[in-house]
Amino acid sequence: MRKIDKLVLKAFWGPFVLTTLIVIFIFLLRLVLFYFADLFGKDLGVGVYIELFFYFSLITLPLALPLSVLLSSLMTFGKLGENFELTALKGAGISIIRIFRPILLIAIMLSGFMFWFNNVAMPWANLKGWGLLYDIKTTKTTLNIKEGIFYSDLPGYSIKVAKKYPDNKTLKSLIIYDHTHNDGNRHVTLADSGLMYTMFGKKYLVFELFNGKDYMEDADRGSNLDASDLAVHNFKKSKIVMSLDAFDLHKTEESQFSHYEIMRDNFQLQADEDSLRKIMSNMKLGFITSIGPNFMYFHKPIGQSIKMLSNTQWVSKRLKKGLAEKSTRDPMDIAIQQVQNMQTFAQTNLTALETRQDKLKTTRLEWHKKFTTSLAILVMFLIGAPLGAIIKKGGFGVPVVVAVSFFILMYILTQQGDKMAKEGKVLVEIGAWISNSVLTLIGMYFLKIALNDSRLFESDFYRVLWDRVKGLKILQKKYSS
Predict the structure, then answer these.
(1) Residues near 388 by beta carbon (within 8 Å), at least 6 away in sequence
(2) DSSP 8-state secondary structure symbol assigned to residue 264
(3) Element (H, E) at 134
């Protein structure tokens, strides 16, 4: 490795690592803010959140790396240009392409890594991350009994407390309805006071009640009750133990989420596409063969055999009866009914076909994304490296503004391309690759300017250009006068 490569790589690695960490942190912060109410207040333990953030850090990597390469390339070559190191290298006869080469090789390796990541690690991270997020969202919040309000989050019980003391343990005037047998409000416990605490590692909740009564109706006697149907038990002290299993995190079977496109690799997506195409082809063929019974055909008598049979008394009676029944129905009503049947049948098949067509588009789009998100790293380098050499500004000032602007452009083009492809306005291939195509053209333009050592982003360049325009206007006025 030559000194020029060490110089460029030394200037590149610091901003790249820092930018990647910052971008991942921003996306994780967005996740926390978006799902704040679902994530917190459930006493799940630090380990669950660390696991969740680890999976989503991997999920955000395809978005973080292109932005990191763009920003770090801008900062690297902008700093080299600002310190006149880039000018000195070009003055020594070293081409701009040679200066770009070490980071270009890094970008190529990152693109190769990202393709492997999108095809192998990303489906696994999506399956684990979104599955865990679903489990956290469906987990009940931490036990929080409020004064004067019935609390029903404990399965099988409804609890009301008149007063709750600051220690969150001592309670006053309790009403507990036991619905564990699904027999209505037949079992009610009233208590003057009580203590609430957990045991066995918060697996069970205990209500230790004092000075109360336990009312229980006979469930087998129905609603016609007399005094003997109601059992009342007075107590000085009693305990009710309730399971807190409903507040634990329950793992959902991963097979319930594995059919989503983002959780499948390229081989599985290709197999899904082939299956969908086969199903759609069978549906179209089945529709064509199934509409035959809805058409009516009228044939003339089949010769003398029918006439011979019609002379017999048994056949003659039944032919006359059939003709009589047939004559009672208007042929127009029959035709309208047949048309309505065909319309209903066609609409049902069209809806099912459109559903699978949308599924096919999404599947193909996700297949292309494995490639587009990988090549986006190279595209961002193609924009960032020449642009940094042009603007000659290092640090987190101008490069951050420029990088974020191009990242937003990439995001908008990607989203619009996906939307148009799913709606069928453009081919899936065009929708998937439109972002990379447009940004590649922009990058090639910046590379051309960098090779020509243009002063595109310097203020005096535009000042001189404006003076020339004003000079041309003055000359035009002179000649016109």
Answers:
(1) 73, 74, 75, 76, 77, 78, 80, 81, 399
(2) S
(3) helix 122-138
What CA–CA distance (Å, rounded) separates 112 from 119?
Answer: 11
Neighbours of 202 (CB within 10 A): 14
Q: How does pLDDT run across 54-95, given as a tens digit for each residue?
A: 999 999 998 889 989 998 888 888 888 777 777 787 777 788
Strand bridging mode 157-164 / 187-199:
unpaired
Calpha distance 214→175 (Å, rounded): 10
DSSP for 390-426, written as a single string: HH---TTSHHHHHHHHHHHHHHHHHHHHHHHHHHTSS
Amino acid type, 49: Y
- Percent of the chain past pLDDT 70, that is, above it, reads 80
Pick from 98, 16, 84: nearest CA to 393: 84
Identify the residue whose tokens are 């960032």: 384
CA geometry: angle at 152 spanning 146 and 155, to 5°?
A: 135
Tell me the angle at which helices 3-34 and 96-116 cross, rounded to the nearest 10 degrees.
40
Positive or negative CA dihedral for 116, 119, 121, 122?
Answer: positive
d(Cα 364, Cα 356) in Å, to the nearest integer? 12
* pLDDT reported for residue 174: 87
Q: Among the listed ranges 106-115, 208-217, 249-258, which one has the minimum average pLDDT value?
A: 249-258
408 is written with which tokens?
A: 């937003």
**pLDDT, tens digit, for every residue of 369-381?**
999 999 999 999 9
d(CA 171, CA 209): 9
